[in-house]
């Protein structure tokens, strides 16, 4: 398991054929990107209720 966290990148993108990582942009597997996106939307919809990513 890698010790890398998502906080180490300026932006994440779903990996696709021909997409390469550039400065500040990191490609992640589409399943990972979809999960992160769903978590961010869930937190945004919940508002500032003291919740976080789970």
Describe this structure in words.
The structure is a single chain. By secondary structure, this protein is an alpha+beta fold. It has one domain (6-46). Helices cover 31% and strands 15% of the residues. It has one helix spanning 30-46; strands at residues 11-14, 25-28. A two-stranded parallel sheet has the order 1-2. The longest helix is centred in the last third of the chain and has 17 residues, at 30-46. It is flat and about 35 Å long. The chain starts with 10 loop residues before the first strand and ends in an 8-residue tail after the last helix.
| H/I helix tally | 1
Total count of strands: 2
Question: Helix proportion of residues, in percent?
Answer: 25-40%
Average pLDDT number: 75
Strand order of the largest sheet: 1-2
The helix/strand class is alpha+beta
Q: What spatial form do the alpha-carbon principal axes imply?
A: flat
Instruction: Please state roughly what percent of the residues sit in beta strands, choosing from under 5%, 5-15%, 15-25%, 25-35%, 35-45% or over 45%.
Output: 5-15%
Largest sheet data:
2 strands, parallel
First CA to last CA: what distance? 18 Å
Number of domains: 1
């Amino acid at each position: 398991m890698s010790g890398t966290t998502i906080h180490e990148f300026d932006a994440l993108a779903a990996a696709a054929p021909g997409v390469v990582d550039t400065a500040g942009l990191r490609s992640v597997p589409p399943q990972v990107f979809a999960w992160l996106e769903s978590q961010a939307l869930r937190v945004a919809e919940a508002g500032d209720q003291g919740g976080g990513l789970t």
